[in-house]
């Protein structure tokens, strides 16, 4: 199939708006399935993971490729829960059109707004599908008003619902002024409008025509001269305005009853732009940037936007062909690793079902298996090419939990399994903390991490223990002090002897460790003096009086004694360590706690609540910055111990509207807990 017949569509929106149900209805109308599955029954095409069945919600990005009329539609079903918004961002990065599925009962919700903003930043054409028009309390008018309040006058309805709630039976097409009814389950089209909406439909039709003709100057001139504008001419102008981002069409229907789904599919095929009609992809060509356009005759170039582990075939790499034509058994180079990858199997993907194909043209989305070393975000290019696509940038995960294998035999397996989980989901992060000796799994929130742990046990058979993340406290000396470290051991034959007098001084924060030799007269042989410094450093790592590593310290060796036979490197390492222990006992230490730089973006109305909460967490407010769209970003420094649970608390406090970024900033003295 040619590139201009492909449509890459992302279904996005808030959790529970019915995206997966809409995908199921599309597959049903297209004849791919004989009856639509239901999310609550766990039998949909795109919710393939047991964790999705258990939670009755989408948790990962799903792909369904199918044909409608003369088009191939590659449908990307993105999860709507906030913890998994990373996959929604990936869908927006790959798709050429975004369909925002909005709940006709609840109206516009927080993740609808956040994802709309993300789509706008990428200039992706957007359609709104108001779903659940068959439900009680569904309101097309109220939902449309909310869309216009938030997104502006470019929101343009193309439909009017026929009937309400259980009486919802179809839609009136505002362009053609036809009505499409589904009383019998399949669509019947008529130009006879129901009497109760006829007047309103004519009025809305005129408003729509006035807005659409403004897109093209010649149509506007003819319209003002009184000429009748044909439906094909209006559709042409609508297509131009939609692709250009000046107009956002609104359709409505019911996914569970498959009402007006075929109309949405027709719109996607006839109005939405093909990959060849959107701007090229920005890539790096060595040290310079350039654009790659969708051209089936160009050099082959593919972007791996997602890898998934299938229990039967192993890893499946989902990729978008950006240029050229891929053939089975082609050899491309992974630009990240330099590995040559043979495309043994190209696949057409429909949820968990894979159909082998021979070729894939530019603009298409396909799968591949049996690749050697490919991960999410990789670029596959011809041998000798330096082209590389920038991977999708995800925010650093902010919620963590420490994990350990329940049995010693699973420790090595756990490390490998965690690496594979992160390979499939780069919004996860695994960190081995050298100070606390914990392996920390981080995600966007508590649900994200819990799902990953469930998947870990199911997929790899590994049971893990979890515990809270330990805080990497440190210590430093309270005051300068001079001490002597004396190590003497004699047990017959060659003994051990080393004496070192050392002055210890605390350094400013982040001063590190300094070792200075100030001895005179060879009291300690030059070859053995570094051993004193090494002994101090080893003792610092073992910790101070509270058991935390010592930092920000200068050790100056002033004097010492040695024995020509019994002194050696080990003896003076012990002398240095003993000198530090004596210093700790003499002057004591203070505890240093890590502090994070915190950025919280919320609606302005919640600014006061956030600032007060950060204050209760011992935070120091550094200022605020406008974030656009009525939002503000609060900047603060907050002790790390106070923000361990903050991602969950912020979501509760802001009803999901708060966005959080954390980064380590500094160490500071911890107040006496007494």
Give a written overview of the molecule.
This protein has 15 helices and 37 strands. β26 and β27 form a beta hairpin. The longest helix has 19 residues, at 195-213. With 674 residues, it is an alpha+beta fold. The chain is elongated, with a radius of gyration of 32 Å. It has an eight-stranded antiparallel sheet, with no helix packed on it. The model has no long low-confidence stretch (mean pLDDT 93).
Helix content: 25-40%
Describe the biggest sheet? 8 strands, antiparallel
Catalogue the unreliable spans: none
- Total number of strands: 37
Shape: elongated
Q: Averaging pLDDT over every residue, what do you get?
A: 93
Topology, element by element:
Layout: E1 6-12, H1 19-29, H2 50-55, E2 62-68, E3 71-77, H3 85-94, E4 97-103, H4 110-121, E5 126-131, H5 140-151, E6 155-157, E7 159-162, E8 170-173, E9 178-181, E10 188-190, H6 195-213, H7 217-224, H8 231-244, E11 248-252, H9 261-270, E12 281-285, E13 288-292, E14 301-310, E15 314-323, E16 325-327, E17 331-334, E18 340-342, E19 345-350, E20 353-357, E21 359-361, E22 365-369, E23 379-381, E24 387-389, E25 399-405, H10 411-424, E26 429-433, E27 438-443, H11 446-460, E28 464-467, E29 474-477, E30 481-489, E31 496-506, E32 513-517, H12 529-542, E33 553-561, H13 569-587, E34 589-603, H14 607-616, E35 620-628, E36 631-639, H15 646-654, E37 659-669
Parallel strand pairs: 1-3, 1-4, 4-5, 5-11, 6-11, 32-33
Antiparallel strand pairs: 2-3, 7-8, 8-9, 9-10, 12-13, 12-24, 14-15, 14-23, 15-22, 16-21, 17-18, 17-23, 19-20, 19-22, 25-27, 25-28, 26-27, 29-34, 30-31, 31-33, 34-36, 34-37, 35-36
